[in-house]
Fold this sequence. Notes:
This is DHS-like NAD/FAD-binding domain-containing protein. The protein is of the alpha/beta class and about 450 residues long. The protein is built from 14 helices and 16 strands. The longest helix has 21 residues.
Amino acid sequence: MITTLDLAASLSDPVARRTLASLSLSVAKSKRIVVVTGAGISCSCGIPDFRSSDGLYALVKKQYPDTILKGRDLFDASLFRDPTSTSIFYTFISQLKQSIDVASPSRTHHFIRTLDEKKKLLRSYTQNIDGLEEKAGLIGSSGQGVKSNEKGKAKLRVKDVRNIQLHGDIHRVRCTLCSADLPCAEEYLQLFADGLAPDCPECTSRSEARLARSARPLRIGTLRPAIVLYDEAHPLGDDIGAIQAFDVSRKPDMLIIMGTSLKVHGLRRLVKEFAKVVHASAPPDPMSTKAQAKNWVGKVIFVNKTPPGSDWNGIIDYHIEGETDVWAYKVEEDWRKMRPSDWEVQQTLDEKDDGSAFKAMKDVVGKGIRKYLSLHPSLRLKRMLIVETCRWQTYSVWNGECPPSPGYRAIHCAAQSPLFPDEAAPVDVALHGWRLQSVEEAGSSWDF
Ligand SMILES: [Zn+2]
């Protein structure tokens, strides 16, 4: 049986309200949460639903008036068989990437990041190719930083990857010949916009090196967007399978599925596999005292506007009907109320460990600190301790874009805030999420 909870109606329904609150507490108590997401979590970011978007198709249609490609055809591997459909695909992707580039992560993306910061996220798996998890600070499986090269073969470093991009990443390109994997540079995007494929720089340099020693030149591959099409295998499929198996063996204690209609075969399998092991983590006898004490363990939560099919009975425990952003907001609000100690986090920004964040923080908060430093001209700022004090509401308003380094978020909050006047003391930053607690310099320190 799937329990359905209507988010909008829960205000007037005490039973639903209590159940939702107990689920929020379960999230707060869980230790190894697997999150699975789809397009629904990026809707509020202004990313068009590209599989059915009229706007993008209209643009593509202008450039290719005779096109009949639509919907699934535009994402089917067979499109590469025909040069015209290949061109249309490239143009479409360039348009899509441009609208993704200006988008910011949603509250749901930040919520997943929060789970990770609070050491509760076992792993996030997404069908989305927009890379907004990375913008929210979760390291994705397509990033170069998480691949180690063993015998020339890229391999994902399990611990570093926080978000598995099941369908690839629109911000990267791949060579069709040598499989070189590169960021999608502006020049490539320009060519894609005109329906053209850029030459692979790695193939080109190998070929040129041969020419230089009078050997026969090699074939040069072209670059394509590194997203996974229908009927196409993921180039990192083996690694992803291994990570998935590893995560199953870690015995996750909660599964949260958000913003997906669960239609894609591979994703259905993944959800079922995780649901099974999550359910197995619940105490076997639900009436025992031990089970009563651990009743937060082993829940499978599905947050989506539309209900799951009846074939999900026994797999999904709760369907939370509504926007994922609204639920994420509610969970975090409940969590802060129920377990305030979880939110008293201290972070140290160290110049050595995180130079850029430190510098940016110094620039913003510096306006206030400069007052203190001007009284001590011989001192140089070395280390700042900042304390998170915010409530979600304040935090979300100023949290439009969130680069991955710790502290940077706080800087962004402060930098954007009209409530942060030029001459404010550093402690004013507390209004916007973070409070500067102390500034340290060799032999001296100040507390705020
Ligand atoms: Zn190549």
